[in-house]
């Protein structure tokens, strides 16, 4: 079977599985509304601020930024750490090792397929939220394919580091605590609570050495018309570097973990 056919069959299988859970997918989307809550908070603060602005953002610009964050965040959702934690602790990983394919690709295909199930309701909700809040996205056509490219890179970065964290279940009773810490860093430094420029300078200086601002904040700023094509190119290069790094980190942890897994007779 050719690689193209394997990929098509794998994606079709996982899409059919995800489509069965479309109601749960919508519930997951509605549960991830922290950025929308922050939008309401910052819009209220801007309305009461002198001149109706805070750090150059008025109410409409806050609405656009946080709706963009919500949209990008929906495309970056990753749950593979919890899947691996369960599979390793319960031993359900064993039959997956008999397949002639790294289990990582099965999980990656499931995540990609879930995006196709999510995209329709997500755009409907985005249109409703934009209408209610007065958000106005950029009219620069190039910003949309560039944002999509950054989202693909950002999703891959997040998938790889969450996968690596999930593999720590080979050595711990539960690896999900690591994923929760990683989520906090992703949210805080990515701009989920406020644009990164609102943070103290020393926090911004630390954040630029992490992948998080380029995964979440930069695509959102592009959609809001507050980032340039040059900044997007710079962010894409950094994200690609993180993809390479986390690829090898995941691979190293996977190989070490399999030795331990086999040593206990699983």
UniProtKB/TrEMBL annotation:
The chain crosses the membrane at residues 21-42, 62-82, 116-135, 141-161, 181-200, 236-256. Keywords: Membrane, Transmembrane, Transmembrane helix. Pfam families: ABC2_membrane_6. InterPro entries: ABC-2_transporter-like. The keyword Transmembrane helix applies. The keyword Transmembrane helix applies. PANTHER family: SLR1174 PROTEIN, SLR1174 PROTEIN-RELATED. This is ABC transporter permease.
């Amino acid at each position: 079977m050719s690689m193209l056919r394997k990929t098509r069959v794998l994606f079709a299988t996982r899409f059919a599985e995800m489509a069965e859970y479309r109601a749960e997918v919508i519930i997951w989307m509605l549960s991830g509304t922290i950025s929308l809550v922050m939008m309401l908070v910052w819009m209220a603060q801007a309305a009461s601020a002198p001149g109706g602005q805070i750090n150059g953002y008025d109410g409409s610009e806050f609405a656009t930024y946080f709706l963009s964050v919500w949209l990008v965040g929906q495309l970056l959702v990753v749950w593979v750490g919890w899947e691996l934690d369960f599979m390793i602790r319960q031993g359900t990983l064993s039959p997956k090792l008999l397949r002639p394919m790294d289990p990582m690709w099965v999980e990656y295909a499931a995540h990609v397929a879930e995006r196709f199930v999510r995209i329709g309701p997500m755009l409907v909700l985005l249109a409703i939220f934009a209408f209610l809040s007065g958000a106005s996205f950029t009219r620069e056509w190039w910003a949309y394919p560039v944002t999509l490219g950054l989202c693909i890179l950002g999703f891959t970065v997040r998938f790889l580091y969450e996968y690596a964290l999930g593999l720590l279940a080979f050595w711990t009773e539960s690896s999900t605590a690591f994923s929760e810490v990683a989520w906090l860093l992703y949210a805080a430094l990515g701009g989920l609570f406020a644009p990164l420029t609102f943070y103290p300078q020393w926090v911004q200086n630390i954040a630029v050495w992490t992948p998080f601002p380029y995964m979440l904040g930069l695509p959102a700023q592009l959609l809001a018309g507050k980032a340039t094509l040059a900044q997007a190119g710079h962010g894409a290069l950094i994200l690609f570097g993180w993809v390479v790094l986390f690829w090898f980190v995941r691979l190293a942890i996977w190989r070490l973990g399999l030795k331990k897994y086999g040593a206990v007779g699983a």
